[in-house]
Hints:
The structure holds 2 protein chains of 2 kinds.
Chain A lengths: L1 H37 L3 E10 L2 E10 L13 E7 L4 E10 L5 E6 L11 E7 L8 E7 L25 H47 L1
Antiparallel strand pairs in A: 1-2, 2-5, 3-4, 3-6, 6-7
Chain B lengths: L7 H15 L3 H27 L14 H13 L1 H11 L6 H25 L8 H4 L6 H34 L5 H10 L7 H34 L11 H27 L8 H32 L2 H12 L3 H20 L6 H27 L20 H24 L5 H19 L1
Helix pairs in contact in B: 2-15, 3-5, 3-9, 3-10, 3-14, 4-5, 4-9, 4-10, 5-7, 5-10, 5-15, 7-8, 7-9, 9-10, 10-11, 10-14, 11-12, 11-13, 12-13, 13-14
Amino acid sequence: MRHQTNKLHPIIGALYQVIKRLAIVIFILGFITEVIAQDRGTKIELFFSDTDSVKLITAIVQEQHPQYMGAPVSGIDLYFYVQRSFSLLPIGSVFNTTDELGKVEVEFPSDLPGDTDGNVILLVKIEDTPPYRDTTIQKTLSWGIPLVIDEQQNKRSLWAARANAPMSLILLVNSILLVVWGIIGYILFQLYMIYKEESASVKKTGRDKSSDNK
Amino acid sequence: MESIHKTKENQQILNDLTTPILKSGRNFKLLMLVLSIVIAFGIFAYYRQLKHGLIVTAMRDYTSWGIYISNFVFFVAVSLVGSLISSILKLANAKWSYPLTRIAEMVAVASIICASIIIIVDMGRPDRFFYVITHARIQSPIIWDVIVIITYLVISILLLLLPLLPDLAICRDQLNGIPSWKKRLYKAISLNWKGSPRQQKRLKKASSILEIMVIPVAFAIHTITSWLFATTWRPGWDSTNLGPYFVSGAFMLGAAVIVIAMYFVRRNFHLQTYLTQEHFDKMGKILVMLSLVYLYFNINEYLGPAFKMVGVEGEHVTELFSGKYAALYWFVQIIGLILPIIILLFRRGRRPLIMLLVSFMVLLGAWLKRFLIVIPSLQHPYLPIQDVDESYHHYYPTWEEWAITFATFAGVILMVGLMMKIFPVIPITESINNRSSKIADNETSNK
Lengths: 214, 447
């Protein structure tokens, strides 16, 4: 029995070595595949249509890999965003999957505010979709609602939290302050003169007396 | 300057008016001790407030201004007395009022200092006080108030100092047996006063300008204080009457405070010759006149909202007239205003002791009135918070708030008391000059 066990040992050892090397090869191959697969670029073409106030974005995705150049990429999800001040706002459906022609259509919301000219920045992304590389393209559209800035808040007024005081108030308050503190300054000057004049006369008298003594 | 002290009568005046500086009775020392203890207790309460925050007070989101602000308005009102006596009466050529000027100026300086301190106490983060100046927004009435308080404090100090110069020179030259620090102080702040014609001319010019200038500034300080309320949209404050209402109330309170101060100065320093029954009689007449003016503004303030009784404004007025604050409100109106008017209209009511009691009634009424101006309005916001905490609906000041409030009262009395120990409480030079002019008048009439 013991003899049999000893006989089995070299076989198990060899098997272990084979499995180990195989695992390493699989890992390296997997890694290489992953890297090669990531390299598969795509081209996203965007088309826009505005019919009866329905704004449609059509995206067509094509292969860029030399082997499959120009072939439509079907069955992948595209992500559509609109740039906002602090983050990206998703638009379209939860899943926007390309059809067999690599095409997907998304309706642009009609109530999104844009900048003062109504411009918004659209971003279309392919994210975490092996074997395709992450891709982002962006396009400026004039489909947003033009932003009307309330100028009242930026104008000088008593109530505007963002702006300064009205010039008339600044001038009035500063004039009053100048007059009142000017008068205070004048009174302090008079006090100084009361102090100084008498000190000077005391010194002078003292000096005169001392010179008389001489 | 020196010659006026040579006569026996003038020496008597000098002795009478400098005795309070030279001698301190046991009662005075005891009073100072008690006041110091009250202040120390207030400082301890403030230490607790600094340590734990404003949560130690009863102020919450509704009543965010409690008795600190009531007290602030009260002391600002008291400080107006300086302009009433030192300026308005002086410019009106009311010569009888000269013995009261110094007392009024001392009370004004002490009150405005305490009012400034209370504002800092009311701040949750006093270390950020200077942000009010460095990040000032001139649109805010709070900034106007900060500016005008600082200005009025400087003017009040000048108004005290300027007429003091000749008296300080007398103290410097004539007082013997005083501590050396006091001698040095008199020497420093008498500004080399010798009474030369040039000095007299400059002093007269500066005093005249100051006496005129203090009137608009005094009106401004209390009008702006009233605007802190009037520019905030709350029931009871949304009124164009608030400025004159506050100013008239302040003058009435100031006159009452002067009567109280006069009574104790006269009694404790034995100055019956200088503060006579006639002074009380005349101050009584002034007080009754100011009370009538204040009554008129009171009627203006409450009649309109009470006649309309609309919405939250109506709720506020109802609460004052017959609700939670009715007892306080009617006490203020009857004991603090109507009864003093009735008493003071009679000559007998203008005797010193009765005047003292009446003035205390006015004083108490005035403090409670500031409470009624601040707190009930805050408890009736135009936009109430939903599901508000029960504690927001009422306001009962905590012991810390009371301790600090009493400490400010003690502070004012202590400051006035100490000033009376350093400066002649009744102007010496003016007393001598007044006596001389009386003699001259008598001689002219005899001829």
